[in-house]
Amino acid sequence: MQATSSSIRSLFLNGPAGQLEALLNSGAENATYAAIVCHPHPLFGGTMHNKVVFHAMKALNGFGFPVLRFNFRGTGLSHGTHDYGLGEIEDVRMALEWLDREFRLPIIFAGFSFGAAVGLAAAAEDDRVKALIGLGLPVAPVDERNYDFEFLASCTKPKLFVSGSRDQFGPRDKLEKTIKSFADPKKLVFINNADHFFEGRLREMREAIEAWIEEVGIVEV
User: The pTM is what?
Assistant: First the structure.
């Protein structure tokens, strides 16, 4: 992994429901990938400033990749209203379009919780996205939400899933069973004694991302 000094650019993306508030951490001049990180559920306080999202960004940016974060519709200064995961998939698609136009590089997708659920649905089918990272995959939400991950059964892109061993929205048995149904290549990493938000274990989560990127050779095109 290379050490880089990253500047941060505030911007607004033109989304399907209006402007979306975003932050771009710049990458190295010789960047080989660009990346996007999606935040957790906005109705429960999730924004692009979430700690898990921030540490995922730092892991990816540490390899010299430019990294885009944005607020889903109705969050922060983003226009529109929350659409219970449907419109948010379109937000991710639009953000991927912007990232491709801006850098013309292969893309790595990462998302946390709700951001993983809706973002993976958009990223898995996009040929420009070459690798997928799901953090705290919510396979057992506590309310009426029911996320469908069947599309990953046929997705042959490299996939990393990182969850806490005490994740209240991703019980180990159910998570292992769900991910077992996904196409290879895939890797599941449990962070010992971590909850859904990796409280007190954010560094280990970040190191799991960094180790996987090196392991699968994503830094080389």
Answer: 0.96
